[in-house]
Design goal:
The chain has 275 residues and is α/β, with parallel strands linked by helices. It has a single domain (51-253), classed as Rossmann fold, CATH 3.40.50. It has 10 helices and 9 strands. The chain has helices at 6-18, 26-35, 44-47, 54-60, 78-87, 103-112, 126-129, 160-171, 201-209, 242-258; strands at residues 68-72, 95-100, 117-120, 134-139, 172-180, 186-187, 195-196, 213-214, 235-241. The strands form 2 sheets. A 7-stranded mixed beta sheet has the order 3-2-1-4-5-9-8, with helices on both faces. A two-stranded antiparallel sheet has the order 6-7. Strand 2 (95-100), helix 6 and strand 3 (117-120) form a beta-alpha-beta unit. The chain is globular and about 85 Å long.
């Protein structure tokens, strides 16, 4: 468990008191999102469970998509909360499914975002869960070499965030994820201009999976680096067109299937006799 300051303990206790209510106001939801500490009763560092800061989650909604949305490794649902609020201004509210392994996080999330469907499960069991298909997949997945129970469909490397994205590619047409800057195929946050990388683990992920990473709306996450609890990090918001990747794979399979195969001769091969 994290070592909370006196102010953090007091704020967390106040958030826990609010969560005893049957229904929460918008102001109460905001207070809990900002002050309920993921490390108060859980070893969040081992699981890589660091909740997205409030302001960063609000910025993330620019890239988060609409329609049927699945939030993988949802925590207490802050990314989904902002997408739900944003969708209220559209033609129809977003239909959100949140998948989270920690049962206490799910319990809190159901209070904060009762509009979503919450599933307490391991995202690596996605096939057995029969989650369905979605317009968009989102997430702030665990970063780096954290313990996991399986692999993504294609990726076999050590970075957990890539396994989650690889799974998302099977569930949705579009994806937006918060990932470490070192895992991105570009550098933008904290830099004067956008720069595309030519090597690194993000490039390797693209090569192995066929999933192309892009920058999306261009949110500079570095301004939020000191708002994380128990960590300070610069991330990037990485966006993916999963539907286009599936079309490319299907076209390549069709091309290979249509490729003429060598026809075996009906006559047995004989060795010519040299004279």
């Amino acid at each position: 468990m994290a070592k909370l300051t006196r102010a953090q303990r007091k704020a967390h206790a106040a958030a826990e008191a609010i969560l005893t209510k049957d229904r929460l106001t918008e102001d109460e939801r905001e207070f809990v999102f900002q002050n309920w500490h993921e490390g108060a009763n859980h070893i969040n560092g081992v699981a890589g469970a660091f909740f997205t800061p409030w302001d960063l989650a609000a910025d993330f909604a620019l890239d988060g998509g609409s329609g049927r949305i699945i939030d993988l490794c949802a925590g207490i649902g802050i990314l989904s909360y902002f997408l739900h609020r944003r969708s209220q201004w559209g033609t129809r509210p977003a239909e959100i499914t949140c998948v989270e392994f920690n049962p206490r996080y799910v319990e809190v999330g159901r209070k904060l975002l009762p509009e979503a469907r919450w599933i307490n499960a391991d995202v690596f069991d996605w096939r057995e869960l029969e989650l369905g298909q979605f317009d968009c997949a989102i997430g702030n997945p665990p970063f780096g070499r954290v313990r996991r129970t399986a692999n993504g469909p294609r990726y076999r490397g050590p970075e957990c965030e890539f396994h989650i994205i690889d799974i998302a590619a099977e569930l949705a047409d579009y994806g937006a994820f918060i990932i470490p800057q070192q895992s991105a195929t570009f550098k933008y946050s904290g830099f004067q201009c956008f720069e595309r990388r030519t090597s690194g683990r993000g490039i390797e992920f693209e090569r192995k999976t066929g999933l192309d990473m892009d920058i999306g709306a261009g949110v500079d996450t570095s301004i939020h680096r000191d708002q994380w609890k128990d960590t300070s990090t610069i991330c990037e918001i990485a966006c993916f067109d999963f539907a286009a990747a599936r079309e490319r794979r299907a076209a390549e399979r069709a091309r290979l299937d249509a490729k003429p195969q060598p026809v075996a001769s009906p006559f047995p091969a004989t060795q010519l006799e040299l004279i």
